[in-house]
Amino acid sequence: MMAALGCLGAQLPDTAPQTINVGGVVDGYNGATMEIVGGASVQIFKGMTSAGMTTSAADGKYSFIGLMTGGTPVDGFIHATATNYIDTYVYPPYPIAMDTNNATVLMLSPGTMSLLAMFSLPMGDSQMAGNAFIGAIVLDCNNEPIVGATVTTNPPGEVHYNLGGFPSKTATSTGDDGLAYIFNVPPGSVVVDADIGGQSLREHSIDARKDVVTTTIVAP
Prior knowledge:
The protein is mainly beta. The protein has a domain at 109-218: Immunoglobulin-like (Sandwich). It has one helix and 17 strands. The chain has one helix at 110-120, and strands at 19-30, 33-36, 41-46, 49-55, 61-68, 76-81, 88-91, 105-108, 132-138, 150-154, 158-163, 166-168, 179-185, 188-196, 199-200, 204-208, 213-218. A nine-stranded mixed β-sheet has the order 4-3-6-7-17-9-13-11-12, covered by helices on one side. The radius of gyration is 17 Å and the shape is globular.
């Protein structure tokens, strides 16, 4: 199926309601098993300032109601912590200008991270302590995963993709799930971008921290 890219290059909103609601669900991969993560501590930031903290419910859902915007889109991130999981930071593809209930937090256990590196990286390579790891999903204008996209970061890391739903050492672009794994990224400010058919999607900058999981979306 062709990716819907009609919104590529469209101007982003520069205004927002005075308050917005942000919510989603916390899921986790523990080993090879995906599970709901209840009891996770979820904190939302505007810029580098905390704007609220909550705890995910038994069904994994969390929400922030009445987040003050000052009339402009919120440029920030989410930080989640949970027992048996690696700290996770979630960055949107662009500042949030309206209510959303699909801000998914996907956490990885240390065992899952080891499995991901084992199945993705060449023999003898690993995710090195002190480096950053980024998980990215490439979506089109309809929020559907894009097949055949190539993801890049600046500074660069080791980019790998899924093949048939499983981490691959040989895949050269995104599969049906639109996922990319970027290992061993130098920590700090990192620009994330994706290309599909010679068209560059909307790049954005995230703060990739060492020894944690950072996730983001790349969109037109």
